[in-house]
């Protein structure tokens, strides 16, 4: 569904990504792991058109989207849940969700909203509250719900478990699996490497802007280098 070919991107003189090749097959969960500053967020931003690539290609369903405008990329079927969630704290929960559908002009937005409320009943209970009054876990649910409101075929999640209590983290990973089982392809950036490898089919390890390792997630989880660097050596 998504293929990055020899993709390079950066910030001025900082070469954050150096010729990345990465494939996300339709229907799968692919996890991208790596240390702080490895370039994971940059991968997400460049896919979404928030940073222009320096070279290489981004193919989404065979179409080259590299350098396209973000709204165009969203309308093609990609959506990002950004690092830090970016909830609009002075808007209500309902308004935040409606923002996710702002580019749609079909008549199924209300039905999708009801589906989001079924998945996350707490968001329906709190729909009139300001986004900023929600707990961290609820804000993450809201960020995921907002992204789903654009009806993505490919959902990009940047560190969804960051800063959340273990029980809430377990909920978030369960939700990601459910969304995937219902047909949405997922590219997941995570520091919670153990969980990210558990739910993924394929995994990529990013080190200072290069892919150092990739393969089936079960194999990556057994790799001694990964165990030592990201799984506490166990
Ligand atoms: P983290 O887990 O800390 O978010 P990451 O793997 O997502 O890390 P990136 O945020 O993609 O890493 O950063 C990759 C590199 O690009 C780092 O060296 C970082 O310092 C640099 N970088 C990121 N954003 C900018 C920016 N806006 N301007 C300049 N350099 C940046």
TrEMBL record:
Example GO BP: L-amino acid transport
Top-level taxon of the source organism: Bacteria
Residue ranges annotated for the ABC transporter domain, each copy included: 2-233
Molecular functions per Gene Ontology: ATP binding; ATP hydrolysis activity; branched-chain amino acid transmembrane transporter activity
Keywords attached to this entry: Amino-acid transport, ATP-binding, Nucleotide-binding, Transport
Family: Belongs to the ABC transporter superfamily.
Listed name of the protein: ABC transporter related protein
The species this protein was found in: Pelosinus fermentans B4
Taxonomic path: Bacteria, Bacillati, Bacillota, Negativicutes, Selenomonadales
């Amino acid at each position: 569904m998504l293929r990055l070919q020899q993709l390079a991107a950066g910030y001025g003189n900082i070469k954050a990504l150096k010729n990345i090749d990465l494939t996300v097959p339709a229907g799968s969960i692919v996890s991208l792991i790596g240390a702080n500053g490895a370039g994971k967020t940059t991968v997400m931003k460049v896919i979404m058109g928030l940073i222009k690539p320096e070279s290489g290609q981004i193919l989404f369903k065979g179409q080259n989207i590299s350098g396209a405008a973000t709204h165009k990329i969203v309308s093609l079927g990609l959506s990002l849940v950004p690092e830090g969630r970016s909830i609009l704290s002075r808007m209500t929960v309902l308004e935040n969700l409606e923002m996710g559908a702002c580019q749609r002009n079909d008549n199924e937005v209300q039905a999708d909203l009801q589906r989001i409320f079924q998945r996350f009943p707490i968001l329906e209970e709190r729909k009139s509250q300001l986004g900023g009054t929600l707990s961290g876990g609820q804000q993450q649910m809201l960020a995921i719900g907002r992204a789903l409101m654009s009806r993505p075929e490919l959902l990009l999640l940047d560190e969804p478990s960051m800063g959340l209590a273990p029980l809430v983290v377990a909920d978030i990973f369960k939700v990601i699996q459910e969304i995937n089982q219902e047909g949405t392809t997922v590219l997941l950036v995570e520091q919670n490497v153990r969980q990210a490898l558990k739910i993924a089919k394929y995994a990529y390890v990013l080190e200072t802007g290069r892919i150092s390792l990739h393969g089936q997630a079960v194999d990556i989880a057994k790799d001694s280098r990964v165990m030592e660097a990201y799984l506490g050596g166990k």
